[in-house]
Specification:
It contains one helix and two strands; from the N terminus they run αββ. By secondary structure, it is of the alpha+beta class. It has one domain. It has a two-stranded antiparallel sheet. Strand 1 and strand 2 form a beta hairpin. The radius of gyration is 26 Å and the shape is elongated.
Length: about 80
C-alpha cells in the first residue's frame, strides 16, 4: 500500500513541477514581449517596399515570381 502511495505522490509531484515550469516559461515570454513596445514603432518616413523583379515559367508548374525587399530609412534597435 505504501509503495502505491509513493508512486502516486511521485507522479503527482512530476505533474506539479511540469505545470509550474510551463507557467514560468509562459510568464517569462509574455513579460519579454511586452518589455519595450516603443522600439517596435517605426520612425516617420520609414517603410519597406516589396518589388517584383522577374517572372519565369517553371516546367510542369505555373510561374515563379522573384521579389526584392527594399527598405527606406530603417533603423534597428537592440532590445
Amino acid at each position: 500500500m505504501q509503495l502505491l502511495q509513493l508512486k502516486l505522490s511521485e507522479k503527482t509531484l512530476k505533474i506539479v513541477i511540469a505545470c509550474i515550469t510551463i507557467i514560468c516559461v509562459s510568464a517569462t515570454i509574455i513579460m519579454a514581449s511586452e518589455a519595450d513596445k516603443d522600439c517596435i514603432v517605426p520612425p516617420e518616413n520609414s517603410y519597406f517596399e516589396l518589388r517584383a523583379v522577374k517572372v519565369t515559367d517553371v516546367e510542369g508548374k505555373n510561374k515563379q515570381l522573384m521579389m526584392e525587399l527594399w527598405g527606406n530609412n530603417i533603423e534597428f534597435k537592440r532590445i
